[in-house]
Design brief:
heterodimer, A: 256 residues, alpha/beta, six-stranded mixed β-sheet, 9 helices, B: 219 residues, mainly alpha, MetI-like fold, 8 helices, 81% helix, 0% strand, binds adenosine-5'-diphosphate, binds magnesium ion
């Protein structure tokens, strides 16, 4: 495997008394696309949110490019990071959401420009140029002035991708980004992600699209009940599942 | 009747002074309450418990008390707190405190109506807390904030007439004093009512304009 960009060790997270992540280990090499699969409720979203510091984890470690995401200091000195440090860490990790979460009061271009101006410190002209570049990359050059409410779900999600990627993150997190889309709109969004993967963007992808997982994933991780059950090359793992739990999961997917 | 008409016209300068006082009181109350109220609203939505609890109590208590009671309580309590304010500042303080309680609740509700996904997305591009507020949360809250706030502003204009309780001559008291001299209640009250109507009608027109401007979501 290439040099690890992300290394997750013994990650644990509870909501109240419910243990949602129970000691997960995952490595993601530079340029890899690790696909995370698993039944609803298995902890995939929580894992991504911990990686982007949207949730604080209780125990274990997440390092992105050598930096511990949620905490500073080691051992007894370990303390949750403050707001400013977290913001700086999040700026280098892109995330695309199941429900798009575009800013409805801003048009497509402004959605992409916001982080470029306020976080990256680009001038308005520079931000505009880079936003338009990325909107063109996702096939929305002619939609820059449209507000999210004027765009289809597929278009909104492509703006969501442009917004994340324009920040030039080290790592991109995709959480079921096609689950809320009508079937005929799924293809256009996945095509954009395929291209990003081919261009070497490092990503962790949560998806139920198994064909996409097979084509794009350099590795597949199957989670169940907050633990990693199986991990392997997509063509191997998806065709010859070893664990009963993965077999059951895959057969349920085929049935629907 | 033409004699009465002349009387009414002759009272206009006096009523005008009253109107200016009403506008002055309303403006101070509206401006101060919106500034402090939005800060309180942000603290109610995001603040630590030691900021939230007292503000929660403050807002709930004042909103649950008739304005008249608030005014008299503050008016008569102030000296005990070592503050000897003139009648006008004392009543202004009471009006501002009362209105602020309402505005903070309106602001809190507006802020908390914004879905969590907006905060997540704003965090994900690396915006800090104040940037998220300034560029993502507050601009979207305006749409929810405006309608109840304009209601509350028109209430503030009406409530400003309570300064007359401590002898300050606003539009209401000016009208009553004119009536005391002219014995022409109907035209004077009609005129005063018309003025209040014009003020509040302008406000609600302004509010509809603002709402249209912020109606970026075409549902
Ligand atoms: N904010 C939360 N508070 C309480 N429980 C949560 C929260 N978020 C997720 N959970 C619970 O954690 C478990 C894992 O959820 P999630 O990470 O969303 O799984 P997945 O994305 O695999 O469907 C679920 O049982 C869910 O109900
Ligand atoms: Mg999920």
């Amino acid at each position: 495997m290439a040099e690890a960009l992300v290394s997750i060790r013994n990650l644990k997270k509870s909501f109240g008394r419910t243990r949602v992540l129970d000691g997960v280990d995952i490595d993601v090499g530079k340029g890899e696309a690790v696909v995370l699969i698993g039944a609803s409720g298995s902890g995939k979203t929580t894992l991504l949110r911990c990686v982007n510091a949207l949730e604080r984890y209780d125990d274990g470690s997440i390092r992105v490019d050598g930096v511990e995401v949620g905490f500073r200091g080691e051992g007894a000195e370990r303390r949750p990071r403050g707001e400013r440090e977290l913001s700086a860490i999040r700026a280098d990790i892109g995330m695309v959401f199941q429900l798009f979460n575009l800013f409805p009061h801003l048009n497509a271009r402004e959605n992409v420009m916001l982080g470029l101006q306020k976080v990256r410190g680009l001038t308005k002209a520079e931000a505009r140029e880079r936003a338009d570049h990325w909107l063109a990359q996702v096939g929305l050059a002619d939609r820059a002035e449209n507000y999210p409410s004027e765009l289809s779900g597929g278009q909104q999600q492509r703006v969501g991708i442009a917004r994340a990627v324009a920040m030039e993150p080290k790592l991109l997190l995709l959480d079921e980004i096609t689950s809320a889309l009508d079937p005929e709109l799924v293809g256009e969004v996945l095509a954009v992600v395929r291209r990003l993967a081919a261009d070497g963007m490092t990503m962790i992808v949560v998806t139920h699209e198994m064909i996409f997982a097979r084509d794009v994933g350099t590795r597949v991780v199957f989670m169940d009940g907050g633990v990693k059950v199986e991990e392997g090359a997509p063509r191997d793992l998806l065709v010859n599942p070893r664990s009963e739990r993965l077999k059951a999961f895959l057969s349920r997917l085929e049935m629907h | 009747m033409s004699g009465a008409f002349a009387f009414v016209v002759g009272t206009i300068p006096f009523l005008w002074q009253g109107l200016l006082m009403t506008l002055y009181v309303s403006a101070i109350v509206v401006v101060l309450s919106v500034v402090v109220g939005v800060v309180f609203g942000v603290l109610l939505a995001y603040g630590p418990w030691w900021a939230r609890w007292p503000l929660r109590a403050y807002s709930d208590i004042l909103r649950g008390t008739p304005l008249l009671v608030v005014i008299f309580t503050i008016y008569y309590l102030l000296p005990f707190a070592g503050l000897n304010l003139q009648p006008l500042p004392a009543v202004l303080l009471a009006l501002v405190m009362f209105k602020t309680a309402h505005v903070s609740e309106i602001a809190r509700g507006a802020i908390q109506s914004i879905p969590q996904g907006q905060t997540d997305a704003a965090k994900a591009i690396g915006l800090t807390f104040f940037q998220r507020l300034a560029y993502v949360i507050l601009p979207q809250s305006v749409r929810r904030f405006l309608p109840p706030w304009i209601n509350s502003v028109t209430d503030a204009v009406k409530g400003s007439s309570l300064v007359s309780l401590v002898g300050i001559v606003d539009l209401m008291l000016a009208a009553q004093q004119v009536i005391g001299r002219t014995y022409e209640p109907l035209p004077i009250y009609l005129l005063a009512a018309a003025i209040y109507f014009v003020i509040n009608y302008s406000l609600s027109t302004l509010s509809r304009r603002l709402e249209a401007r912020y109606a970026y979501i075409r549902e």
